[in-house]
């Protein structure tokens, strides 16, 4: 099955539904105060680029976003693929698209926060395979056992 990845608005119904699926997936994995979700409206801001993966039938099967914080720092946000597509490389392709966009925007560094508890092991493996290294809390995220933080320096 071929999958295409493109920049899209998160305000489409199918992408809103995927955001809701992601939130439902995360809900049982960590306490609500340690879930740092962006709404579709927040994702539609000028500081965020949303990448959407679609299958041959044009169904939405995954997403990820790049949120630019300043001229040098970008954050990977809202990485998710539907359960039926996990393990097919969609997450890798979305992450590569995000990194390419960060480089295009001349950002120096990417950071991300993901869950720190059981259930997030596939995410940790993806980020580490892509060259992200663990680091401490950044921006306004609290340091807790429920979060794991990563960063990656980008080529100049």
From TrEMBL:
GO terms for molecular function: acyltransferase activity, transferring groups other than amino-acyl groups. CDD domains: NAT_SF. Residues 5-155 form the N-acetyltransferase domain. Keywords: Acyltransferase, Transferase. It comes from the Bacteria. The keyword Transferase applies. InterPro entries: Acyl_CoA_acyltransferase, Bact_Acetyltransf, GNAT_dom. PANTHER family: AMINOALKYLPHOSPHONATE N-ACETYLTRANSFERASE-RELATED-RELATED (PTHR43877), BLL8307 PROTEIN (PTHR43877:SF5). This is GNAT family N-acetyltransferase. It comes from Aurantimonas aggregata.
């Amino acid at each position: 099955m071929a999958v295409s990845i493109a920049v899209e608005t998160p305000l489409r119904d199918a992408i809103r539904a995927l955001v809701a699926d992601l939130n439902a997936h995360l809900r049982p994995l960590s306490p609500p105060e340690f879930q740092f979700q962006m709404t579709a409206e927040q994702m539609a801001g000028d500081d965020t680029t949303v990448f959407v993966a679609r299958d041959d039938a044009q169904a939405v099967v995954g997403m990820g976003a790049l949120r630019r914080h300043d001229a040098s720092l970008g954050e990977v946000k809202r990485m998710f693929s539907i359960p039926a597509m996990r393990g097919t490389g969609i997450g890798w392709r979305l992450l590569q698209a995000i990194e390419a966009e960060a480089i295009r925007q001349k950002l120096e560094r990417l950071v991300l926060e993901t869950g720190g508890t059981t259930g997030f092991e596939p995410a940790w493996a993806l980020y580490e395979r892509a060259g992200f290294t663990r680091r401490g809390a950044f921006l306004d995220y609290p340091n807790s056992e429920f979060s794991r933080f990563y960063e990656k320096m980008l080529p100049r």
